[in-house]
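#onboarding

Welcome to the new folks! Below is a worked example of what a typical request in this channel looks like: someone posts a single protein sequence, and someone else replies with the predicted structure as tokens. Don't worry about understanding the tokens yet, we'll cover that in week two.

Example request:
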Amino acid sequence: MRNEGLTGLDISGSSLAAARVSDGRLRSASATTIEPGLVVDGEIADPAGLGAAIGEFFAANGMPNKVRIGVASPRVVIRTIETPVIADRKEFAAAIKFQAGDHIPMPLDEAVLDYQVLDTIPGADTGDPPKFSVMLVAASRGLIDGLLETSKHAGIKLQGVDLAAFSMIRVMYPGDISSRETIAYLHFGDMLNVTLAQGRVCKFTRATPVGYEALLAQLCERVNLTPAHAQMWLDHVGLLAPIESIQGDRDIVLAARQELTDAAERISNDVTAAIDFHVAQESTAYVTR
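Example response:
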């Protein structure tokens, strides 16, 4: 029987992107735009409308209806914690949930938790019991429920939800680096996603709604442009050419340069804050690139 495979789906505020994978290989990929207002600041605002758009997109491109969806949202947090080594799975899960309350900045009854054991840490002194190093991920239950409702409207079978940070590391991992080397990965789309990884292990991620869509909206409001014209002006002005050498309406040119400069500063501040937070948690950490 032909293996139709699995579809990976990425949802942003302005578009859908899907990749069909089977037998470990990329078979096809497609993208399309969606109507404004279906997704706002990384949150699904209209599950029925978004589901209809996804259903049409999948039908038009022949995508398998078994789907994994990637999420990046301010309502997802990741922490690395240490726990006692417990062999019984149910007891271990209970211990993780008990400790999660001290590390996750949201009520546990409003969160969906998942975890993965990263490593076994030997005791500091002779006779001390070993501990597990555990990656803990928590997502707002409202965020996950929105994905489930959207999937029902789309007629797709949701196989799993993946953190966008994990997929970014899988795609961009440079290879041949020390397992202790820390790299910052950035994605500037409809949101800004800052992810720090030690080797292949995600140590920190944060998504903030200060992405490209917000940049376009601010320029549109400032000089009364349509989104399409705002994008053309941002591409035309850029950040590198001397401002006096750029042709066009001076008010628009100056406004575009200012918005780009402000966006670059916001990105810089977010990256710096992420690195500072990581170093505060692990004093030996050093971001190399």
